[in-house]
Design brief:
By secondary structure, this protein is an alpha+beta fold. It has one domain: Alpha-Beta Plaits, CATH 3.30.70. 37% of the residues lie in helices and 32% in strands. A five-stranded mixed beta sheet has the order 3-4-2-1-5, covered by helices on one side. α1 runs antiparallel to α2.
Length: 114
């Protein structure tokens, strides 16, 4: 089972995404659920990493089935881009979890504002 945890800031902006586990929906190297989650996560990492004004930490973990992403936007334009990229990532992951609930779960938390 893939477990996805997304943390949004008080305005709904992506702060963190943690992905752990294996879907078990197909053979190693041919699992459609793992492939979908991996493509979404790696595409978000790639799009955000090269963007001016966005700090990105994380990526694939030391073990297969591990991925983390932590973000911070430092300018208004970067914030707008992060909002769009984060919304795309969250909706894509939500779609996979909804389509394959026996293989993938997702929780979304909102950070409290101080």
């Amino acid at each position: 089972m893939i477990q996805i945890q997304v943390i949004l800031d008080g305005t709904g902006l992506l702060r963190r995404c943690e992905i752990r586990g294996h879907a078990g929906a197909g053979p190693k190297g041919g699992d459609i659920v793992c492939a979908a989650v991996s493509v979404l996560a790696r595409a978000a990492l790639g799009a955000l990493s090269g963007r001016e004004g966005i700090v990105v930490r994380g990526g694939p973990g030391g073990s297969r089935g591990e991925f983390s992403l932590e973000t911070e936007a430092r300018t208004g334009a970067a914030r707008d881009f992060l909002a769009a990229a984060g919304a795309f990532l969250v909706e894509g992951l939500r779609s996979v979890a909804g389509e394959y609930p026996k293989n993938c779960t997702m929780t979304i938390q909102n950070e409290r504002r101080n």
